[in-house]
Write a structure and sequence with these properties.
It contains 11 helices and 14 strands. The protein is α/β, with parallel strands linked by helices. A 6-stranded mixed sheet has the order 6-7-8-3-9-10, with helices on both faces. A 4-stranded antiparallel sheet has the order 2-1-4-5, with helices on one face. The chain has a 4-stranded antiparallel sheet with strand order 12-13-11-14, covered by helices on one side. The longest helix is centred in the middle third of the chain and has 16 residues. The structure holds adenosine-5'-triphosphate (ATP) and magnesium ion. The site of adenosine-5'-triphosphate (ATP) has 12 residues, from helix 1.
Length: 308
Amino acid sequence: MDSQEVVIEAKGLTKKFDDFTAVDHIDFKVYKGECVGFLGPNGAGKTTIVRMMYCFLPPTEGELTVAGLSVHTQCREIKSMVGVAPQEDNLDPDFTVIKNLTVYARYFDIPKDVAVKRADEQLKFFQLEEKRDVSIMALSTGMKRRLIFARSLLNQPQILLLDEPTTGLDPQARHLVWDEVRHLKKQQVTIILTTHYMDEAEVLCDRILIVDRGKIIEEGTPAELVKKHIGEDVLELDYDEKLLPTLKEAFPDARFEKLGDRMQIFTDKPHGVFEGFLKEHPMQNVTLRKANIEDVFLKLTGRGLREE
Ligand SMILES: Nc1ncnc2c1ncn2[C@@H]1O[C@H](COP(=O)(O)OP(=O)(O)OP(=O)(O)O)[C@@H](O)[C@H]1O
Ligand SMILES: [Mg+2]
């Protein structure tokens, strides 16, 4: 973050669908040039939050400004300046790939020749050149995702909203998206990203907001969150009841979690504490790894599936 200029601000932002509260009085600020990740289980409210940012859905209560403009009264201006890659596929199946881009560019009053040039550049970058003139129906799921991202860049937005941009992408395509996000960050584009890939959030996001049941339950830089909630290292080993007393004695303050036939041990003790133990108690099937955002996510939002 290079400046303290607030680009997106929510105050008491709330969205209700009938009597169900999907987004529940949340407050947050996003600063210029930041990439902020919204992480949360299925149904947490991430897409609803993003949709309110680009005026797809009106808030039920509270304030939300994007580039200083209110989503209650200035939707036209907001829509003209943000780039949006929605979670759902809203490509037009009746058009070809290139036409999907050029028709979209018309909403932003981009002259036809400029639109075609930019569209071709994006198709090249996202390795969709060969599909330029085919129907949307002829694209694979991952190709459609790439096209939706490419389309969000046509108006050269300073604010970019990416709702699960890499879901369904192969590793090569995912890295292409990451490269583009990094490139945009260098140009001070402000980016909102939702993702279920914790490694993606860790490498791309300057700050992470964890959303659960419509509320922001935690926020911070990836490193801050890992340090605060998990610690430095995680020890994973086969679950063994006989070993438990020894482990509990060695790590009295640690958190133990059983996962099927494996066990994880989390401690806020400094790096190296598990190595010493393993030297004294050699074991098989042991993994010693760095704590990560996925550990934080599972600790804060639980391990149960969300099927509300
Ligand atoms: N148009 C709608 N009408 C009624 N309920 C809705 C509507 N849109 C979303 N919801 C509900 O609001 C909650 C939040 O949905 P949302 O799509 O924002 O979740 P999400 O965090 O994006 O989940 P996912 O990770 O699955 O994309 C869910 O319980 C969902 O069923
Ligand atoms: Mg969603």
